[in-house]
Amino acid sequence: MNIQIGIVGTGNFGYHHGAILSQMDGVQIRSICGTSIDKAEKLAAKFDGAKGYSHIEDMLDANELDAVYICVPPGAHGEIERELVHRSIPFFVEKPLGVDLETPRNLLTAIQQKSLITSVGYHFRYTESVQLVKKMMSACTSGITLGQWMGTMPGVDWWKNQRISGGQFIEQTTHIVDLLRYVCGEIDEVYAMFGTSATAEKDPSITVADVGTVNMKLKNGTVANIANTCLLPPPMSRTGMTFYTDQGTIDWSPSRLDVNFEGTQSKFSDSMNPYQTESEAFLHAVRTGDSSRILSDYHDAYQTHRVTCAALESATKGIPIILRDDNEG
User: Is 180 helix (H, G, I), strand (E, B) or coil?
Assistant: First the structure.
C-alpha cells in the first residue's frame, strides 16, 4: 500500500516530519496546507510531487489522502481535526492538543465515536532509553520524581503569546509531564506556581510566564515536581527527569541515561531516531489497522493535556487542583 500523506503546517516541524516521511518506502507526500499559499507552495517544493494549499478543505477535496500530519501552533487546533474526523482520515498531531480543554475534549468524543486511528507526537516515549526506564521502574518502588525543562525563549512570535501557545508548561514541558505519566502512572493532584521574572521587562509582547514549578501527587502514592523556565540565554538548557526509588536513582535526559542501583552504575545512549519510530508505528496502523505500536494516541495524550491545563489553572487561582475522573476522556 502506497500511503498518500498531507501535512498541515509549514514551520520547522512540518518540514521535519516531511523530511522523514519522504525517505520512507511506500510513502508519498501529496499536499501541504499552510496559512498562505506562498508558504504552502514553498514547503511543497521540497517534496517531489507535492502541491500547496491554503485551506484544509481544498487540500482534502483535491486529494484522496490516507493520513494527515498536523504541525500547527497550539491555538490553531480544532477546525483541522474536526474536518479530518468528519472525513474519517487518520491523523498524526504534534503536541500539545490545544490551549484549553474544551476543544480536545470535544474532538476526543468524535474520534472515539468513529474509532479513528490517531497518534500524538510525544516522541520521547519511542526512545530506547525511556523504554528501559519504564521497565526498570516496574520493578522498583517509586518515591519521588524530579523533572525539568530549563531553556531559552523560542524565536517564534506565537510561542511568546499565552493565548496562542498556552505557555511553556502546556506547550513544551508537556513532554516531561507525559513521561511522568508513562513511566510512573496517573496524576491525581497538581499545585503550581508560575511567574514572570525577567523576559517581559525586555520584551513587552511576551505574555507567557518564564518560570514555573508544579508539585504533583500520583495515584500510586508517588510525589513529583516538574519545574521549567524559558529565560536562560541560548544555547544553555537542561531537560530531564530523575527517579528516586527503593533500588537507587535513574537519571534520564534526551542525550543519556545514568542508573545508580545499590552502588552499581550504568550508562545508556539511544541509537534510534524516535521521530522516525513514531511515524513507522502510525503508518503501520494506517496500513494494517493494528495500532498496538502507537504509544500515544489522542485519548492518552488528552490525559497529559488535562494535567498541564490543571497546572495553569492552579497557578492562576493559587490553589491545588484535583484531577477527578473525566467521563469524556
Answer: helix
Residue with cell string 505574555: 207
Q: How far is CA 282 from CA 106, 132, 286, in A?
A: 22, 22, 6
pLDDT of residue 202: 84
Exposure class string for 254-269: b at 16+ Cβ within 10 A, else e:
beebebeeeeeeeeee
Which residues, other chains included, contact 7 with Cβ-Cβ below 8 Å and sequence gap of 6+?
14, 17, 18, 29, 31, 32, 33, 43, 68, 69, 71
Distance of CA 215 to the CA centre of its chain: 20
- Beta bridge partners, 69, equal 7, 92
Helix extents (H) in the chain: 12-21, 37-44, 56-62, 79-86, 102-114, 128-137, 162-165, 168-171, 174-184, 199-202, 274-288, 298-317
What φ, ψ does residue 264 adopt, rounded to 5°?
A: -95, 120
pLDDT of amino acid 292: 98
Which helix (H) or strand (E) is 53 found in, with range?
Answer: strand 51-53
Q: Which residues of the chain have pLDDT under 70?
A: 326-329
Give just the sign of the alpha carbon dihedral 66, 72, 77, 83.
negative
Check residue 266 and give its pLDDT: 96
> For strand 211-218 and strand 223-229, is the pairing parallel, antiparallel, or unpaired?
antiparallel
The total number of residues shown for the chain amounts to: 329
Three-class DSSP category at 291: coil
Neighbours of 129 (CB within 10 A): 21
pLDDT in tens, 264-296: 999 999 999 999 999 999 999 999 999 999 999
Helix (H, G, I), strand (E, B) or coil at 138: coil
Which grid cell is 310?
Answer: 490543571
d(CA 294, CA 286): 11
Nearest CA among 76, 83, 211 for reference residue 148? 211
Distance (Å, rounded) from C-alpha 60 to C-alpha 239? 38
Give pLDDT, residue 326.
62
pTM here? 0.96
